[in-house]
Records
---
Amino acid sequence: MNIRLETPADFREVENLTREAFWNVYRPGCTEHYVLNRYRDKPDFIPELDFVMEEDDRIIGHVMFSKAIITLDDGGVFPSWTFGPISIHPDYKRKGYGLKLLIYALGKAREMGVGLLQMEGNIDFYSHAGFDLASKLHIHYHGEPRGAEVPYFLAQELIPGYWGGREGTYCPPKGYFVADENPEAFEAYEATFPPKQKLRLPGQLGYEG
Ligand SMILES: CC(C)(COP(=O)(O)OP(=O)(O)OC[C@H]1O[C@@H](n2cnc3c(N)ncnc32)[C@H](O)[C@@H]1OP(=O)(O)O)[C@@H](O)C(=O)NCCC(=O)NCCS
């Protein structure tokens, strides 16, 4: 198993991997491969934290990081970071690869001075890499009431004390909403991949049977 930076020669393979990993997981089909496709040119993208994982002479994992901000209660803006999509190919899921990739990337992020990360995800996975509910750091999620339990909104100080006991609200960077903003462009991009069946499945967001 090898982890290295992504190169332009990997782009298509990694987008296909992202599509395979996310397909029908959170919704029928997925859009995360398009997010990645559009993100690499954005100023928020961090090329030094754009990793692929190789095994059996193929790319089986990927993770990217982004600059982000937290709007402080006092009106200020606090520089922070987020990450995702993170993908492990379906054939290699639940074998420890995702955690290895994430812990490696977090170590590199810390070395670069990344002090705080917040993101949406399943605590059952991310707690193994040091994440906890963001509400414990008094970081709130946009669109959710202040006192609400937001079990999917997680955070971690990579540099202890970086957040410094502040209070604020996080909204993911605009780059994560590209498919919603431009559905026609997304559909045109999606059509360049082999067809896959979209299914509504239990466990997806908003699934009601
Ligand atoms: C999420 C993902 C990156 C995890 O990588 P992985 O290699 O499958 O996970 P690991 O084997 O390293 O998991 C380590 C531990 O985390 C937990 N875990 C991992 N995936 C989990 C999940 N989907 N739900 C609940 N717990 C999970 C388990 O405790 C697991 O240990 P176990 O298998 O012994 O029970 C990968 O499954 C994936 O690509 N999923 C689809 C895309 C996705 O959801 N990305 C994350 C978006 S937030």
---
Amino acid sequence: MKWKTTSLLGLFSLLFLFTCQNRPASGENASAGQGAALTPEEQEAFLAKGADITSATFSALSGRLRSALQQEGVAGAVQYCNLVAYPLVDSLSQAHNATIRRASLKVRNPKDKPTSAELAVLEEYHAHVKAGEPLLPMVKAIDGSRAAYYAPILIQEACLQCHGKLGETLKEEDYAVIEKLYPEDEAVGYQAGDLRGMWSVTFQR
Ligand code: HEC
């Protein structure tokens, strides 16, 4: 009986010790996270805003691309993309008071290389692909004054003429033009349905 009481006491003091030790740490996290954690209202608002902005940007990019492809073929459209894609996304960023980026593990334009925060999210998306799990948009706090929206970008049939398999869906002569403009290009070898990269939109909170 006495033995039991002692061991119970021991157990309690051990528990107490753990809770006490954990308290300052979790207290620190809570205060560090206080400014950073997104409220459910912010979550919802940034998810909606991010979806709006990325779909507007996608329409603007793909609309221009489609007409360039029709008028000038793949080689001409690539040069057009090279000139227009970045400034277009930049001006939409200004219009929406946000920073809109596209990032990928295999980039064509070196400016689209992921930041360390983006890399973590991209890796998470690729892990979901491997596990056969759905790829959903997400929002995360960056710090007390900024939040980020992320959403996957998937390859469609129409993308393959510039991002597909060399000598198959992507013609050698078209790739020659791409390589000239982007000597370090890695954004090839894709099939329809592949995860190409993601949107990364940063908002002020
Ligand atoms: C006419 C050729 C062409 C087609 C078609 C095309 N792309 Fe691209 N893509 C490019 C070029 C060129 C760039 C680099 C743009 C730049 O310099 O900002 C690029 C860049 C990207 C990027 C930014 C990341 C990076 O690698 O720099 C993503 C994401 C992307 N493309 C996805 C797609 C998707 C998805 C489709 C189909 C819906 C598509 N592309 C169709 C030529 C094309």
---
Amino acid sequence: MKKTHVLLFVSIFLFLSCNDDKNKKSEETMTENPLLSEWNTSFGVPPFDKIKSEDYLPAFREAVKIHKEEIDVIRNNKEEPTFINTVEALELSGEKLNRFTNVFFAVSSANTDDVLKEARKTIAPELTAHNDEIDLNTELFNRVKVVFKQKETLNLSPEEMRLLTETYKNYVRAGVNLEGQNKERLKEINKRISELSTTFGDNLLEETNAFELHVTDKKDLGNLSASLIAGAAEEAKKRGHDTGWSFTLQRPSINPFLQSSPNRDFREKLFQGYALRGDNNNENDNKAVLLEIANLRVERAKLIGFDTHADYVLADAMAENPKAVYEFMDKLWAAALKMAKNEQKALSDMMKKEGVTGEFRGSDWRYYVEKVREERYQFNEDETRPYFEFTAVREGVFMLANKLFGLTFKELKDLPKWHKDQQVFEVLEADGKHLGVIYMDFFARESKRGGAWMNALRQQSNVDGFETPIVTNNFNFPPPTKDTPSLLSFTEAQTLFHEFGHALHGLFSHVKYRSLSGTSVPRDFVEFPSQVMENWMSEPEVLALYAKHYQTGEVIPDAMIQKMNKANSFNEGFRTVEYMAAAYLDMNWHTLKEPNSKIDVRKFEKDFLKKMGLIDEILPRYRSNYFAHIFSGGYSSGYYSYLWSEVLDADTFNEFKKTGNIFDPVLAKKYRHMLSSGGSKSGMDLYKEFLGRVPEIDPLLKKKGFE
Ligand SMILES: [Zn+2]
């Protein structure tokens, strides 16, 4: 359920608004543009030291031009369509553009500046338009169709067959088969959804920024950490106050306040402010916007030939259909809800014990969780930081990769980087053979977006020779200070293992085609290789390898680990329930069978949650009116994916445990083999090959304490 991802560029950029062509650069310098020239660097890494921010936009335009020419050659080919001259040719086209987008989106996410920000506004919609032009091109599709119809007679390898069927399917899913009025309507729908998604996001941002809770009495801050207090004081200044502290509806601001402030009224004000974003019946209200999106999506699904939008989306996922998603979630819901109700009892008892009268409210939840944790477990997460010095954690993840797969890591100090703080490593096989390169960028800074993520600078492929992968990991860890190194919290250390799991997925790739390599897998599979790594991270055997006090070298004491695990597992019911309520809402909005503009959005949500038995003190992690993942991001009918991936990771780690050796070499080899196939087979087929059976949910139930 962590919110760290591999970047899903395509889905993210589908939803950006259009921008005018305002930055036409001269083309005479094109031959020298380092983004377009040959890269004569070690391992062919991008020449970051030579690339200037001003180079991106002209390189993009040129790369698109080259791709269009390549597409025209395929489209206008006078020969009969074949697998090679059409399907594979499409796959291999756009090499320069792909190389460009890899570098551009990596750098503009991790080390941006004003020029890059502007370029991104221009490039994102132009790239979407360029891709649409290819995906809705009837002549190209007709050629693909000819090949597809002969597929049984072509003697294709399994991977070539996969490329052919995926290519064909993508065209059909884009709606290329539609004709006349229907095709026009599809284009209208796509355009309208794209506009509405932008509006939804803009409204949400307005509502989030408009809200402020200004605190003037220091005792209302409770035990907030010094850095958060300093941040709130800065926010107050920014908002024109001479003194005091301002809290906003951004998660890093609201959550610590709800956990720390003893002022019930303030907590309630902040909590309600958060819950009502986009639902205030003002000009930024999102209810009509999201209803129109949901209605347009079902209309589009039906045009293309599916019953509902969820059927359309899930046909491409490991779960395959809405029924499977509901059945899977229903298995967890009752147990999670029961656990959450028990937690609520403990919390309201604690509140009474403190002498606070009145009903226990949703806004009290996080505050009393901390109180219960303190009383029951005497645990404070900050105690663990000295044991998770960031270099030690990095070494820990490298040692784990060595124990499981025999990999070693050699730092490459002289390679060009996008920022001086980056660390670059060559990844070597047990026999010393080169596997790939990983760029790691650890610390928070202004030029980096929030969160943690992985992406590829070069995807593995093997058409004209084997191209080894180059991947990146990006984090927002606290930078070291003059006196102390960067000390991670347990959760941050977990994030390092998580992202490294995505990196391994990219590094282990061993396929022919780029579009089927590495992390190019369905959304409900992609978090599996990352989440599974978190299991090893907290095993005593693994902690002993790396979790050592940065001053004394003492290994983290068992007693502290046990205390930590117990403290972390309290509130698991709440966490699962608030997440699942949102995942159910997502599915409900996207299993509408007909457009229906009469739906009352609030009532729709409320009736459903009541039917599920959700208690009033828990809100869905996202209410419909601010559920940006599904209404302005690429996660519609996909929010369940995190939990689905958790089933796979718990099941997999349980298999390791069953062997009696969490580094079992035989199982590790099979696991690696599964990852090496990337997206060249379906997620379920990969899993069945790996363990010889379908995934089992019991290990997850056990892990969450739901049995
Ligand atoms: Zn992830």
